[in-house]
Write a structure and sequence with these properties.
The structure holds three protein chains of three kinds. Chain B contains 18 helices and six strands. By secondary structure, chain B is mainly alpha-helical. Chain B has a domain at about 5-275: ABC transporter involved in vitamin B12 uptake, BtuC, CATH 1.10.3470. In chain B, the strands form three sheets. In chain B, strands 1-6 form a two-stranded antiparallel sheet. In chain B, strands 2-3 form a two-stranded antiparallel ribbon. Chain C is about 70% helix and about 5% strand. The longest helix of chain C is centred in the first third of the chain and has 31 residues, at about 1-30. The chains are: A alpha/beta, B mainly alpha, C mainly alpha. Chains in contact: A-B, B-C.
């Protein structure tokens, strides 16, 4: 069953057709990669999915509901989480607080006027956050200020902030961009674990073919704002059009 | 205790003791002595200012300290609160209870409107918007709203005001169900005389309550959200949180604190004028909070107290006092020193304040609290935050 | 119709002052990325340079003229300005008369120097700090400058007349074909407007036609890239701060005859100039100039009696009202660029 259904989405910036008639269907419980050369419209598509951009035409349905016209926080409340190219965390807050915030957002919704009760008395929430930190092996760093951590730790923290909300769909924007080899391997492993242990649906935008082929179950190739082809990794590898348009240059 | 952790509770108790025992603690020198005349601060008019501006700074800190949104028009709410309170005196009676309640409510209503509009922008734009609103309020108080504000004369209570709830024997000064604000008890102990004023204690109780509420807000999920807004608004919305209502709540709470302070000012002295809303007054609120340590619990209270104290003593010093101090020097040295210091004292107080403020921003962005922490750290005591700062995060 | 033109003229001098201050604010913000709350204080320093010039030129020594008696019958004491004794009566008189325009010659190097010292000594340490800190430290600086002025010159406004040639009014109406004396306009204000137009044109020409200006404009657009090209952009930015200070100083000198300087004019003008910058669009030089004139003229229209009768108090708040409306409907101001201060 498909959880995310993109149909006939168009987006123009002035004279540039950033997205042209994009159709995409992400099946529940799969890892779906969207690849394509620079300027293919991957980031534009992602920004449409999270409500940052509104397309000129077309529809985006998440779990049977339209996401178009909703604000980013409303879409997040529907169950879509996003991991950024450079980790977006609360740099001035402690690691623990970073994870507490999404816990509150999950339980209390987009806004709740809870200005009197103390955070520390919210036993359920604190326990939930601790459990999450334990799973990503960061419990010992719980009181550390987030900005003081290494880049890899920041990435893991961001993942933890997304996962603790138990999203229906996790969007990943080049999660390994600019990472050293070892960090990339760690991230792949982390994502694989998430996939096997939690069964979360993921849509991933990635340049690194190594990452894509070790994770993805389905791949959509985007070129000049339009989907070129959508298939399983094996088929994509051998697809002549794809080799020509994209992989040819990547494998040099 | 009281829903506070032990560190916060300790801090709270310290503030309680400071506020309640201020008439004693702030009179360290015998009343008639030279030192006492210059440096004692334990008289009602000054102590009232300590606690009222303390309340104002605590409220401002909930906005600026937690969210990082710098309002340059906060004095507007102080002025609005004062006007509302004086109107209650004019219409109902001199009882301070309805006056203070209305001051808080009216300031709250104004801050809902002004906050709703201003918060659509952030950064410098937010500062300018709040400044523009405050300046508008100030200008209008002198022109269109003269029937409400009594223009340059200032709003005060006249004999022919309705005062419909005024009983025959009621006091003709602000009072709390008969206890007059300016009533006081004086206790003389050898050279010292301690003055316990009713009005001061009313304000002090409000300070304690305000401070308690501010600790609760700092430690609450909402306090966490507000700090998160300061840190990263993008992540806030992708986590599924709507920042606007949180910001508005912070703005309104802080506006209501200012309204309370304005109402208390009117309760101490039932007249008010538009100059309370001028941008310099807003600037002073900013200066107080930053000087003490923005984003920390106790910082703004310390800042407010320090500024009001320094204002009081520095502006009292004049050349003859200086000559007195330097009388041990040869004459030419004495004159030289006096000439050197002259621009900074008396009417030059604002110069001293400006320099002090700049020095703090440059060298101690975290204000006095950070300074205190640094000194403690130097002496190798790492549990420095115990007495000074209850907040988990140092100010920035 | 003549009343209409008169209001436009009335708005021009204030508008010129707003435009010049806003221009400097925008230059500093665009190049250095600093929000300078002390810029009004620089304008004020300019005005007080004019005051100082006038005082210096009228410094006098006393001589006793035995040939004349005062009304008490004592020998008459005559004050002779030093400049008259040194350069002769004619030159001395001329110097005193023209002290305000002459102050321009002093204010340019002085403000450049001051700007240089401020940028190197203070502002540069705040590039990496949050905008709030920049606002706060320059706000503190503005307090200090204002109070220093008060300490030296007192709190009262000091009258600073323009050269006698420019005292009086010009019948602008007759130039434009109206009846004589329907539109009389103070001569000095025309001078002020012309002077401002000249400075604005000069700044724009400088940025447009010199290599230096080109680099600065590129730096305003994208600082990092220009830095990567190996151009020492910091030095140029220091110069820009000096230039902005000099522009504010000149605006202040020439404004002294219009509004007697006192220690608070810096802040009065700053608050309004900031509003001007925001309306014009943060980071847009043409926007700052346009908004400056526009708001000056708007303010003058709002202070017409007919308008005030219709909307009481509007003259006091019109600028703020416009700013609020613009900020809410066109967040980038009239001509602001995308992405400036949008966090």
């Amino acid at each position: 069953m498909s959880i995310l259904e993109v149909k006939g989405v168009n987006k123009r910036f002035g004279g540039l057709q950033a997205l042209g008639d994009v159709n995409l269907s992400v099946q529940e419980n799969t890892v779906h990669a969207i690849i394509g050369p620079n300027g293919a419209g991957k980031s534009t598509l992602l920004n449409v999915l999270v409500g940052k951009l509104i397309p000129d035409s077309g529809s985006v349905m998440f779990d049977g509901q339209s996401v178009l016209g909703r604000k980013p926080h409303e879409i997040a409340q529907m169950g879509i989480s996003r991991v950024f190219q450079t980790p977006e965390i609360f740099a001035d807050l402690s690691v623990m607080e970073n994870v507490l915030i999404p816990c509150f957002a999950k339980r209390d919704g987009a806004f709740k006027l809870h200005g009197i009760e103390s955070v520390s008395t919210e036993a359920g929430i604190v326990e939930q956050a601790e459990k999450m930190l334990d799973e990503v092996n960061m419990l010992d760093k719980r009181n550390m200020t987030a900005s003081a951590m290494s880049r890899g730790d920041k990435r893991r923290l961001e993942m933890a902030m997304c996962l603790v909300q138990e999203p229906r769909l996790l969007l990943l924007d080049e999660p390994t961009a600019g990472m050293a080899r070892a960090d990339t391997e760690n991230t792949i492993q982390l994502l694989k674990d998430i996939r096997t242990q939690r069964g979360i649906t993921m849509a991933i935008i990635e340049h690194d073919m190594n990452v894509v082929f070790s994770l993805a179950e389905r791949i959509t190739v985007l070129a000049q704002g339009t989907p070129l082809v959508e298939d399983t990794p094996d088929k994509i590898k051998d697809h002549p059009k794809v080799r020509e348009a994209y992989l040819g240059e990547a494998q040099v | 205790m009281l829903g506070l952790n032990s560190r916060d509770f300790k801090l709270f108790i310290i503030v309680c003791i400071m506020a309640l025992a201020a008439p004693i603690l702030l009179n360290p020198f015998p009343t008639a002595s030279a030192l006492g005349e210059s440096f004692n601060a334990g008289y009602p008019a000054l102590m009232q200012r300590f606690v009222i501006f303390g309340i104002l700074a605590i409220g401002f800190n909930i906005l600026f300290g937690l969210t990082g949104y710098l309002s340059f028009g906060h004095a507007a709410f102080l002025g609005i609160g004062s006007y509302a309170a004086v109107w209650m005196f004019k219409l109902l009676s001199y009882n301070v209870v309805p006056a203070i309640i209305l001051a808080v409510i009216v300031a709250g209503l104004f801050s809902v409107v002004i906050g709703y509009v201003s918060l659509r922008r952030s950064g410098i734009y937010f500062s300018i918007l709040t400044l523009a609103f405050a300046q508008m309020a100030y200008q209008l108080a002198y022109s269109v709203f003269t029937p409400l504000t009594n223009g340059e004369t200032g709003l005060q209570v006249y004999n022919d005001d309705p005062q419909i709830l005024m009983g025959a024997g009621d006091p003709t000064v602000p009072h709390f169900f008969g206890i007059t604000m300016n009533g006081q008890t004086q206790i003389d102990v050898s050279g010292w005389s301690f003055v316990f004023q009713n009005g001061y204690y009313l304000a002090a109780i409000f300070l304690i309550a305000s401070f308690y509420l501010s600790i609760r807000i700092f430690r609450s999920p909402m306090g966490l959200m507000l700090r998160a807004i300061k840190s990263n608004q993008t992540r806030m919305s992708y986590v599924g949180l709507n920042t606007k209502p949180y910001m508005l709540a912070a703005f309104v709470i802080s506006g209501m604190y200012a309204g309370l302070a304005g109402g208390l000012l009117a309760a101490m002295d039932p007249l008010t004028g538009a100059e309370r809303m001028f941008w310099t007054a807003s600037g002073e609120i900013v200066v107080m909070s930053v000087l003490g340590g923005v984003g920390t619990l106790i910082g703004p209270v310390l800042g407010a107290g320090l500024i009001k104290y320094l204002e009081n003593i520095v502006s009292k010093i004049n050349d003859s006092v200086l000559h007195n101090w330097f009388s041990f020097m040869p004459d030419f040295m004495d004159n030289f020193m006096v000439t050197l210091i002259h621009p900074f004292i008396g009417k030059g107080w604002h110069l001293t304040l400006g320099l002090l403020f700049m020095a703090v921003i440059i060298f101690l962005p975290g204000g006095l609290v950070q300074g205190g922490q640094k000194i403690m750290a130097k002496f190798g005591r790492n549990k420095n935050t115990d007495a000074k700062d209850g907040a988990d995060t140092p100010a920035e | 119709m003549d009343a209409f033109i008169l209001q436009i003229l009335n708005g021009l001098d204030k508008g010129s002052a707003y435009a010049l201050i806003a221009l400097g604010l925008t230059l500093i913000f665009g190049t250095l990325g600093v929000v300078n709350f002390a810029h009004g204080a620089l304008f004020m320093i300019g005005a007080f340079v004019a005051v100082t010039m006038q005082k210096l030129f009228s410094l006098s020594f006393l001589t006793v003229d035995d040939t004349q008696k005062d009304f008490l019958g004592n020998p008459l004491k005559v004050e002779t300005p030093y400049v008259e004794a040194w350069f002769g009566e004619n030159v001395g008189n001329w110097l005193q008369d023209w002290s305000v325009p002459l102050a321009i010659l002093v204010v340019i190097p002085f403000m450049f120097f001051l700007g240089f010292v401020l940028e190197r000594g203070l502002i540069k340490h705040f590039y990496k700090r949050p905008h709030a800190d920049q606002i706060l430290v320059t706000f503190g600086l503005a307090i200090v400058i204002g109070e220093l002025i008060k300490a030296f010159y007192g709190a009262n406004p000091i009258q600073t007349p323009p050269p006698s040639t420019f005292i009086g009014t010009v019948d602008v109406g007759s130039w434009l074909g109206f009846e004589a004396n329907t539109i009389a306009y103070p001569t000095w204000r025309i001078v002020y407007f012309a002077f401002s137009a000249l400075i604005i044109a000069g700044v724009f020409a400088f940025l447009q036609f010199t290599t230096f200006g080109m680099v600065v404009r590129a730096g305003m657009a994208d600082r990092e890239t220009v830095g990567m090209l190996g151009i020492d952009i910091d030095k140029r930015f220091t110069f820009m701060f000096g230039l902005a200070a000099a522009v504010a100083g000149m605006a202040g000198v020439m404004y002294a005859p219009i509004l007697s300087p006192h220690y608070n004019i810096g802040m009065d003008f700053l608050v309004l100039s900031f509003v001007v910058v925001v309306v014009g669009g943060m980071g847009s030089l043409p926007g700052a100039v346009l908004a400056g004139f526009m708001l000056g003229i708007l303010q003058s229209f709002a202070s017409m009696n007919e308008v005030k009768a219709l909307l009481p108090g509007i003259d006091q708040i019109i600028i703020y009202l416009v700013a609020i409306i613009i900020l809410l409907t066109r967040p980038r101001g009239l001509m602001g660029r995308k992405g400036v201060m949008e966090e």
